[in-house]
Amino acid sequence: MIKQLTLASAITAAMALAPLTAHAYDGTVTITGTLSGATCDVKINNGSNNATVGLPGVSASTLSSKGATTGATNFTIALSNCTNATGKSVRTFFEAGPNVNTADGTLTNRAVSNAATNVSVQLLDIDGYALKAGDASQRNPSKTSVPIVNNGATMVYGAQYYAQGAATAGDVSTSVTYSIDYL
C-alpha cells in the first residue's frame, strides 16, 4: 500500500511539473520586397543633392502661439538621367533623425548662436499640407508619388516656420536626411 501511495505521489508530482502548453499551427507570415535597379541623378533647386533652402526673414510676433506658421517656401527635388526606371514612380521620404521632433514631425531648431526659441521648421507636400518627417504617413502614394517621364521627375515640397509656443527672435537652422523611394 505504501509503494502504491509513493508511486501515485511520484506520478502526480511529475504531471504537475510537466508544462501544460498546447501548440497549434495558426498561419504563415510571408515577407516580400523588391530591389530596384533604378537610379537617378538628384538635384535640389537645380543644385546638388545636398542644398540649403532659405526661409524668408519674418517677425517673431507672427509666431506668437503654438501651431502658428509663416514663411512657406517651396523647393524642388528633381531627378534626371534615370536608368532602369521605365514605368516607375518616385517619392521622397524625409527620414527620422536627431533633428526631428517625434511628437509632431517638425525639424528642431539647431542654430548654434543667437538661436530663436519655440520655433521649428515644418515640411510641406505639394499642396501645402504638413509632412511629418520620419513618419510612414509620407508614403501615401496618392499624395506623394510622381511618375518618371522621359527619364526624370520633379517633386515639389515646402518648408515653413512652425511655432512650438511664443517664438523669440533669433536664427533658425536645421536639416533633415531624405531618401528617394522607387515604386
TrEMBL record:
Key word Signal present: yes
Record InterPro entries: Adhesion_dom_fimbrial_sf, Adhesion_dom_sf, Bact_Fimbrial_Adh_Pro, FimA-like
Annotated compartments: Fimbrium
Highest taxon of the lineage: Bacteria
Keyword terms, alphabetized: Fimbrium, Signal
One BP term from GO: cell adhesion involved in single-species biofilm formation
The UniProt record lists the keyword Heme: no
Signal sequence, start to end: 1-24
GO cellular component: pilus
UniProt cross-references to Gene3D superfamilies, sorted A to Z: Fimbrial-type adhesion domain
UniProt-listed Pfam families: FimA
Family: Belongs to the fimbrial protein family.
Name this polypeptide is given: Type 1 fimbrial protein
Species in which this protein is naturally found: Burkholderia cepacia (Pseudomonas cepacia)
